[in-house]
């Protein structure tokens, strides 16, 4: 299952108090509260607000109408190629999330929006790494093309490194590790999952820590695997059952149930 990322964490010393407050709420699954702090009077604020509400959809499977409204506002205010590209990138992510969660098949819309973003966001621009990551998600989870996904994730990984975007870097580590695990590269997968978890713990990104723990558990022997899953369950309960899709990965097998 895919996870979103937005550039900037609000967790560095140079961030303003508003950015820090938004980050703290976002990292604790309080996207609506974070969005309330942002007045969508300018394109950057409207884009950030839309991105928060799109992210909420992916993690909670709720709030679709609010995200659409916020996105339309951001699209209306965008007046540069970078801003229009960022809005298209969020449009693609929202359509991807709706398709992934079975709300409605919007795969064609997702592809078109991300293609539009690629035409607007210059190679090497800060927003390009996030776009590459999301194109990887589309290739992996909707198109079923792991090779294309790996290439996109690697571009995103390089961009996140170049632009010092640690949250996005945690996402690229995790998804590259997932592809490695699918290919049977256990050591590579364990390393990637461990790096992703380390970054998220350092950032205090609680809502993304439980999925990272579950992923790492897939590569660890017992009893470490069970310890990691129990820690993930604790965080999952703490955050009120978010991300929603993680529940099926945390349900203990029934006594006597066969396992493959």
TrEMBL record:
Q: Which InterPro entries match?
A: TPR-like_helical_dom_sf
Q: Which domain of life is it from?
A: Bacteria
Protein name per UniProt = Uncharacterized protein
Report the source organism. Answer: Streptomyces griseoviridis
